[in-house]
Design a protein that fits this description.
With 393 residues, the protein is α/β, with parallel strands linked by helices. The chain has helices at 3-7, 42-45, 54-64, 77-88, 101-117, 138-143, 168-175, 199-211, 282-295, 298-317, 344-352, 375-392, and strands spanning 21-25, 28-31, 36-39, 94-98, 125-129, 160-163, 180-185, 188-189, 195-196, 215-219, 243-246, 257-261, 325-331, 334-339, 355-356, 358-360, 364-367. Pyridoxal-5'-phosphate is lined by residues 44, 100-102, 105, 133-135, 186, 190-191, 219, 221-222, 247.
Length: 393
Amino acid sequence: MNTQAIDALFVHAFKRSGAFFVKGKGMYLVDADKKKYLDFGSGIAVNALGHAHPALIKAIAEQSQKLLHVSNLYFCKPQIALAKKILAKSFGEKIFFCNSGTEANEAAIKFARKQASLVSKTKYHVLSFTDGFHGRTYGALAATAQIKFHEGFGPMPAGFHYSPFNDVLAAKKILKSQEFAAIIVEPVQGESGVHRVSQEFISFLRDYATKNKIALIFDEIQCGMGRTGTLWHYEQLGVVPDMMTLAKPLGGGLPLGAVVCTAKSVAAIEPGDHGTTFGGNPLACALGETVLDIVSKKSFLKDVKSKGNYLAGKLAALAATYPIIAQVRASGLLVGVELKTDPLPLVAALMKNGLITIKAGHNTIRFIPPLIAAWDDIEKAVEIFEKTIATVG
Ligand code: PLP
């Protein structure tokens, strides 16, 4: 296959590996040469139920015979069913559906600004934290405190401010400098290499936001929906946000995002203030309900936690033999192996040996398998990792 000619067809926005997948089943992907890969990337944290899950196939078959699209001018059954279930299982009192993570953050920021505009015309500032990732559209991009993503795309929208992650004193200082409408934070930073928010920091943000009528938004697009061993990551923090954004695994592989909100945080929003043609589409919502039903089971979540701990423990133990490993950080089945060298050669070598992983930040390899990963799959992934790192590091 001439990958160069194929690559020439597309806007050069992605650095793609040469792999060309044609099908998947469970934990495995198969390429055009019939080679099998153990998938510990889940299409960047999307395929929580792996590939061709029978429950998803059934939901697609049933819903596709009924309705694919109606627009948000009307109600539809799958959207109502999914809304009810997410709200029943979370702090949320209201929900807004959209198509992606960046759109969910965009909507959350707009909701917060509209609400704050009732207090003061200058209460529109948004605070976010270094190395967070919130998306590629302008609001979410401006909230992404990583300047490399802004370069060449300026000017960014006004009113976005950044502070170091997990630094209470710095956040306190900047929060006093402007009238803030929103604070947006990834409770576990995924793209930058699996960094968890500290208890002290998140408790401070919650307190400050409440006292100053600022919307606290948790971006759980990567760390929510069971990924870290509880349905929502905030459950592990003992603090509840005003809004929580979701996407990635929510649509079972179809584009679906959501903003889960308290009623108070979106009281200012009126018909026409915000919208989407496709958001909350019946087919994506039918898949969303299927995913949610499976990943929200207590026994399933308990398994995610213990398998994540096991995987992280096994990988951490390899550091004694392979000094190229600097640190292992984990939250459930979101596991980052920080290396002392550029991780890309190892990611490529793992791929060659049939294990898909994903680079995170500049020095970390991310293991984000489908949440259905069995113990055997975890053992196999560790085995391939050890075999491969022995040749690279
Ligand atoms: N927020 C987080 C935490 C993410 O990890 C991502 C994507 O990687 C996004 C937002 C953006 O999501 P999307 O690519 O669906 O727009």
